[in-house]
Amino acid sequence: MLFDRVKSLDHILASAETRGLKRQLGAFDLTMLGIGAIIGTGIFVLTSVAAEKAGPGMMYSFVIAGFICALAALVYSEIAAMVPVAGSAYTYSYAVFGELIAWMVGWALILEYAVAAAAVAVGWSGYINGFLHEIGYGLPLVWTAGPGDTIALADGTISAGGFNLLAFLISLFVTFLLIIGTEKSARFTALLVIVKIIALTVFIVLAIPAVNAVNFEPMLPNGWGTPASGVGVLGAAASIFFAYIGFDAVSTAAEETKNPNRNVPIGLIGSLGICTIFYLVVAYAAVGAVGAQPGGELSQSKEPLAFVLRAVGYPAIGNWVASAAIIALPSVVLMMIYGQTRVLFTMSRDGLMPRSFSHIHVRFHTPYVVTLITGIAVAFFAAMFPVAMLADVSNSGTLFAFFMVALSVMVLRRREPDRHRPFRTPMIWIVGPLAMAGCALLFVSLGWGTIRLFVIWAVLGLIVYFGYARKHSLMGKQQAGD
Once rounded to an integer, what is the mean pLDDT over residues 312-320? Predict the structure, then answer.
């Protein structure tokens, strides 16, 4: 039977207690980790992508994506407080739908975390190399882009990348931080979060006085968009969704959280709420200050927030905001790799991944083997491939996971109505279906190319599951009496 391997919540909790990670994070740490994971490439880079797809209508795109994430955060909070263990959506799916679906969710989360980490590392590389060029120490393209990246030179020739050294090195540095300790990583992230919040606050204070109502016309140059078109308000919302993902990484830290029943919901909802407010105000200021018509200067900029400040008369501060992005983006790489390792750690504990993935360092109390392997994989992926275009692919994995979490919470409400719930999602029979519908809407708005890539990834996941994971599953061995 394909769906007979279901692990009870009590079994999951007992396993985490006997083989768990050290609890050392509080509500503030989780909120900072969440903000660190959320505020990054999305707002610093994808604002221009949204402007190209939707024009000033990207204001609506930010609202739509934020609203869907808020619904997802509410359902996440309920099940994360009930089951405060590592693994996030993978673990929840294992308890509700069984091993096969859990494997597919865990496999999809690789798209969210690993691909996103590599994409942000490449984005950071572009920022830092731009800064190095400004001071006369810029690296040539062969060392700042993968072999798939090319650039047209002034003499008409085409230069190709080779190995993105900067993206490779930042990925390894972040991996080192994660190995030496979760608490140290959280403190490092908190410092970078402060830098990002200051940068966005400065941008808002300087850009809002320059807002002109004329810049919001026409509001919807590409309309609302149609499913799979990848343009319009919905297409931009599907891309902007990348700017919000990361808050769910808070749930992967549940097993390392003190008083998780209270602190995990605070971290999830608090981090998303703070970031959503910032995003909406930043989007309003950017559009109102310089306009955001498709094909315009904002839509073509690689550093849109810095461009806006330069355009409204603050070039030096615009350069500082770009520098802030350079300083702060590593925190996003850190949280994406962190989330990936905790999911793989839990899958290893279930026998679906190699046993070495769940080995914990005696001194640092971290899953060092899987962290090292994940970090090296992300580093090489960032160094060798132009992964910025894979942001939508990352979104596809996240949307699938969010959909399954919302469904899981509703199923558990029916299946185990009397189980203690430290946090209860309000109006679950409205919030849950709306979260699922919103995820489905954004998924089909990603475009056919992205959907095809997700399907290919899912098929590959099934091959790995039946070729390796199912044979090594601890649940399967227990059922067989081994």
Answer: 87
Residue 330's pLDDT band, with cuts at 50, 70 and 90, is confident
Average of per-residue pLDDT across 308-313? 88
Q: What is the pLDDT of residue 185?
A: 61
pLDDT of amino acid 183: 59
Q: Which of 256-270, 287-301, 392-406 has the highest mean pLDDT?
A: 392-406
Cβ distance 352 to 469 under 8 Å? yes
What rounded mean pLDDT belongs to the chain? 82
What tokens were used for 250?
């808070």
Angle (nearest 5°) at CA 279 between 450 and 403: 40
User: What percent of the chain lies above the pLDDT cut of 70?
Assistant: 87
Is pLDDT above 70 for 390? no
| Strand-pair partners of 160 | 150
Q: Are 455 and 101 in contact (CB under 8 A)?
A: no
Backbone torsions φ then ψ of 275, nearest 5 degrees: -65, -40
pLDDT value for 52: 81
Token pair for 459:
């098929």
- What distance in Å separates the CA atoms of residue 235 and residue 425, rounded to the nearest whole number? 29
Do residues 398 and 443 make contact, with C-beta atoms less than 8 angstroms apart? no
Q: 205-250, pLDDT tens digit by residue?
A: 999 999 988 888 888 888 887 766 667 888 888 888 877 877 776 7
pTM: 0.81
Q: How far apart are CA 124 and CA 169, in angstroms?
A: 11
List domains and CATH numbers for the chain. 9-115+215-352+395-477 (1.20.1740.10)
Q: In this structure, what token pair is assigned to residue 323?
A: 């520098």
